[in-house]
Amino acid sequence: MKRCWSYVLTVAACLTVQLCPGMAGATALVVATEQYFPPYVFQDEDGTMRGFNVDLLAEMSRINDWQVVYELMDFGDIIPAVREGRAQMGMSAFGMTLERRELIAFSEPYLTTGLALAINEVYADSISSFEDANGRAICVEKGTTSEVLSRRLGKAKVLSFDDTESALRAFNAGECPVLLNDDCLIGYALKQGLLEEALELPLHDIAKPQQIGMVFAHESTELVDKFNAALSQLRGNGVYAELYARWFGQAQ
């Protein structure tokens, strides 16, 4: 499984996605996710949910006869929503850490990803490593491995935001010369022009690539098994590889 080198606003809304015709008898699946974390999941201007995760879950829903209902929220609220029974699945880019495993159950890993810095071009000559960001302002999203890693620098001014969109906006406004986030997101944001006057610095030397999975309550073993079986089927029939190439711009 290759790494992907390659957009979250809080809303009180529930979006029902009709995945295919004739789903009157489908089982509702409530999924807690972010509104803006591309290329994994994001809502476009007409309200349609898009992204690799969304397309992957749509294919799984055809297999399992699910009708997905998306509950949009901040990243930090997803695990609590699953634990409290307000959602059956959590979806973003959750690294499968030991700390999270104590709170929830994970699916089988469906991607491997890393971390990267987006650096304002003005600082290109002075920031060539993660340690060079120490003493500077770093934009991160709350509750993420990026926030944890940034705070380990000691002297960095860590600016934590509830959602990714706010972090990107702060970076573009010059509030921080450095943005730390998922490397797939950084790469996608640069290609789509969502980050202005920025360069990418992968952090593969200090932040090992991590497997990511979907989030479930510990007692949802049957649902986890269905997800994992569908994932195996999609990998076997080539659909997973097609989705990967569509969103990450390369073969899996």
Name the features.
252 residues, 15 strands, globular, seven-stranded mixed beta sheet, 2 domains, five-stranded mixed beta sheet
Structure description:
The protein is 29% helix and 27% strand. It has 252 residues and is of the alpha/beta class. It folds into two domains: 14-112 and 209-248, Periplasmic binding protein-like II (D-Maltodextrin-Binding Protein, domain 2, 3-Layer(aba) Sandwich); 115-202, D-Maltodextrin-Binding Protein, domain 2 (3-Layer(aba) Sandwich), CATH 3.40.190. Strands 1, 2, 6, 7, 8, 9 and 15 form a seven-stranded mixed beta sheet that branches. Strands 12-11-13-10-14 form a five-stranded mixed beta sheet, sandwiched between helices. A three-stranded antiparallel beta sheet has the order 3-4-5, with helices on one face. β3 (36-37) and β4 form a beta hairpin. α1 (52-64) packs across α7 and α1 (52-64) packs antiparallel against α8 (239-248). The chain starts with 13 loop residues before the first strand and ends with a helix. The model is unreliable at 1-23 (pLDDT under 50).
Helix amount, in percent?
25-40%
State the major sheet.
7 strands, mixed
Level-2 CATH architecture of the largest domain? 3-Layer(aba) Sandwich
**Class by alpha and beta content:** alpha/beta
Low-confidence stretches: 1-23
What topology does this entry show?
Layout (H helix, E strand, L loop, with lengths): L13 E3 L10 E7 L2 E2 L3 E3 L5 E2 L1 H13 L1 E7 L5 H6 L5 E7 L2 H4 L3 E2 L4 E3 L1 E6 L16 E5 L3 H7 L5 E5 L2 H9 L5 E5 H9 L6 E5 L7 E7 L4 H16 L2 H10 L4
Parallel strand pairs: 2-6, 2-7, 11-12, 11-13
Antiparallel strand pairs: 1-6, 3-4, 4-5, 7-15, 8-15, 9-15, 10-13, 10-14
Helix pairs in contact: 1-7, 1-8
